[in-house]
Amino acid sequence: MGLCTAIKKFSRRGKYAVLIGLLLSVLAWKASFSGATDKTIRVNFAATQTPVKEDELRGKLNSWTAAPSHSNISTEKEECPEKSPLLMGASKLSFESSLTLKDVEHENKVVTEGEYEPSDCKARHSVAILIPHRNREKHLLYLLHHLHPFLQRQQLHYAIYVIHQAGDATFNRAKLLNVGYLEAIKDFSWECFIFHDVDLVPENDHNLYVCDQQPKHLVVGRNVTGYKLRYKGYFGGVTAMTKDQFFQVNGFSNNYWGWGGEDDDLRVRVEQQKMTIVRPPADVARYTMVFHKRDTGNQVNKNSSSPEMLAKKELKFEE
User: Which end of the chain is more exposed for a tag (fewer CB within 10 A), N or C?
Assistant: First the structure.
């Protein structure tokens, strides 16, 4: 249902993209909603896992990030203003149960296969939004309904990638985000990557979806925590990293099956690389969390707080 039943469109890079080096026998392919409001990557994690050497992975990353071209980007338009004149500030969010995919498609006719760029100026930033997903079709509709106009008001060149985990295996958010990253860099030389939970909707468009000189955490507060930071050191929900920053920490750990732990692990990786996490002002970095119950197959990871898991110094995608 939902993403699984969408009409599949083949990417310009071929029917299938075999990810050699990230996942341990993972097969991913591109699809999209019929209305092209996002780019969907479907992933089925295989039971058989084959380790890949770290230097081989880095070699592939280097070859995939070698300044690809993109014919849609105009070099003739003037650069967009440093501060977008379209920003509205805090918005009152609505989550209508009657919202449908056709509604989202109708609202986003300027979006092509999940990608958008301003028509009247050249965007200053190119951003890939990566959303891990399974069994949250309504949450995804709510997020797309609000996120597309939110990003367009920031005058960004962006693409939204939904990485859908197929099958009944335990959910692995981190591994899906690693897949999304590797697929996105095949499309375009994105300078910034936003790793975005499907149930968090931004409330204020002054919370800019652009990267900083240091890894950036965008969720300072959410409605369910009284708009306070969830806990000291929290680095989950929505985070932004440049290609160089993500490469430096060597991505997420693939070890975290179920809910929790992968965001703390990423924070440790950032700290081990002597980088500092930055955050927008608390009155801007506010989110509404759409209520849901814990999914089957996404149980709390019992090892999410294990010191042994969080203190690893070997940073390998295939761990």
Answer: N
